[in-house]
Write a structure and sequence with these properties.
Number of helices: 4
Low-confidence stretches: none
Order of helices and strands: EHHEEHHE
Shape: globular
Structural class: alpha+beta
Oligomer: single chain
Radius of gyration: 13 Å
Number of domains: 1
CATH class: Alpha Beta
Mean pLDDT: 96
Distance between the termini: 26 Å
Number of strands: 4
Strand content: 25-35%
Helix content: 40-55%
Largest sheet: 4 strands, antiparallel
CATH architecture: 2-Layer Sandwich
């Protein structure tokens, strides 16, 4: 199944460049975590400060609540998420 999520970036060109750098070299623990939980492919599209993330999932494995619960107990994922929220903002 395909899922689409949206969020905004902080409107700061330097922070946006940093965000893009991190996403060119995503931590291996993050990639392992999402794959383990049924994410087959992920693409992020940007228009200005708006991001659209498209996930292709194996729905025999993927469950949004379970992946969030597993993230809460994974130190590397908690660190990644805390870092990313320096650059991101929820959509209005």
């Amino acid at each position: 199944m395909r899922h689409c999520l949206a969020l905004d970036l902080v409107d700061d060109p330097e922070l946006i460049l940093m965000y893009e750098r991190y996403h060119r070299d995503v931590w291996p623990e993050v990639l392992a975590h999402i794959r383990k939980h049924g994410v087959i492919d992920m693409q992020i599209f940007k228009l200005g400060t708006r991001l659209a993330m498209v996930l292709e999932t194996d729905d025999t494995v993927f469950d949004a609540k379970k992946i969030d619960q597993a993230a809460a107990s994974n130190e590397a994922i908690r660190r990644w998420e805390a870092l990313m929220w320096k650059f991101q903002r929820p959509t209005p």
